[in-house]
UniProtKB/TrEMBL annotation:
It comes from the Bacteria. The lineage of its organism: Bacteria, Pseudomonadati, Pseudomonadota, Gammaproteobacteria, Lysobacterales. This is Uncharacterized protein. Keywords: Membrane, Transmembrane, Transmembrane helix. The chain crosses the membrane at residues 12-33, 53-74, 94-113, 119-139, 159-178, 209-229, 249-269, 298-319, 331-352.
């Protein structure tokens, strides 16, 4: 009887040991990210460049976030009570947010007047993350000892925080994000249409009372999301559950980068943060080697925002007794619409027009 139980336990330990290293290919992908963008730009803008190579490099650049999501999912299906597995899951989530983190770092270096060092600093930071992770993994208890992480679900004291996170999300969506995405979508009908819609919307969200309140709510949204994310790392999750946490980390980094770019970089220098600024007009996002990083940054930002909302709706459905299978089907349907919307906005930003 005892002998028949040993192999499954050994398999679980061995599997957890392997999954604990899932962060390694994710970090390697993050290190390759700026080089993939450089290949895309060079091949697209060179006289003898290859369009196929450019498209392939851009797809692989998008794939960095996808690999981070996969790493978070795989580690999230394993024994998350093991410290090394949880560490792999955290790093994988961080890799998912590589596009906005690269933008944020680039803006900071520009403000510091450090030119031409983006790749070097990015490489040094990720190597530091890898070294720190290795040190911590070797310092943590072995795979044969599961650390205590408390209950298998987030503690009840987070219930109020979850409600606040949801309420502020609805407020941001109604006051700013919904109209803002609609404004971007209107660019498909021409830049003039976009500018007219933007001027109308700015009366609301650039109001002297509304704007600082909105920035404060966004700050609360990011902080509460990060607080809620931490205990979820110690809980097993399916793919949609992992998509919710990974998209949350991406959005936290995206909002940090976006607010920094708008208020520190643009407005400080008196630049109007209009459609031309966002799309690097008149040359476009593909012409400048720095600006190409904004393509995955924006495109994934829109999709993962919608994905985060879809997964949140799924969680609410399940909490109110909707069968998981039915909630999943509805969520996948909403995600499909999210893909179409994000693709349409990305196309508008790259210059495609209906008329």
């Amino acid at each position: 009887m005892t002998a028949s139980r040993d192999p499954p336990a050994l398999t679980r330990v061995t599997g957890s040991s392997l999954i604990a290293w899932a962060w390694v290919p994710c970090v390697m992908a993050a290190l390759a990210y700026p080089h993939l963008l450089a290949v895309f730009h060079n091949q697209l803008n060179s006289v003898d460049g290859s369009l196929g190579l450019a498209v392939g490099a851009l797809i692989l650049a998008f794939g960095v976030s996808a690999l981070g999501l996969l790493g978070a999912f795989v580690s999230g299906r394993s024994d998350v009570q093991r410290p090394r597995v949880r560490m792999a899951r955290r790093i994988s989530h961080l890799v998912t947010a590589a596009p906005p983190l690269f933008v944020f770092m680039g803006v900071l270096l520009f403000l510091m007047r450090v030119e031409g060092m983006d790749v070097a600093v990015w490489t040094a930071l990720w190597l530091a993350v890898a070294a720190a992770t290795l040190m911590q993994q070797f310092a943590e208890p072995g795979d044969g000892h599961a650390a205590s992480v408390g209950p298998s679900v987030p503690r009840r004291r987070n219930a109020v925080l979850r409600v606040m996170h949801g309420v502020t999300a609805v407020a941001i969506l109604v006051v700013f994000l919904g109209p803002h995405l609609g404004n971007h979508l209107s660019a498909l009908w021409g830049d003039e249409v976009h500018h007219r819609v933007m001027d109308m919307l700015r009366v609301v969200y650039r109001n002297g009372l509304v704007e600082p309140l909105l920035i404060g709510i966004i700050g609360l949204q990011v902080i509460s999301g990060l607080v809620l994310w931490r205990p979820k790392i110690a809980v097993r999750a399916d793919f949609l559950g992992t998509l919710q946490t990974a998209s949350g980390i991406y959005l936290a980094a995206f909002l940090l980068a976006h607010v920094n770019s708008v208020f520190t970089l643009a407005r400080y220098f008196g630049t109007d943060t209009n459609w031309a600024w966002a799309t690097s007009a008149p040359n476009g996002l593909t012409a400048d080697p720095w600006d190409v990083r904004l393509i995955p940054h924006y495109a994934l930002g829109v999709f993962l925002l919608l994905a985060h909302l879809c997964c949140a709706v799924r969680a609410v459905m399940i909490a109110h007794g909707v069968p998981v299978a039915r909630a999943n089907r509805r969520t996948w349907g909403l995600l499909g619409l999210g893909v179409l919307l994000s693709a349409a906005i990305a196309s508008a930003m790259l210059g495609w027009r209906i008329v």
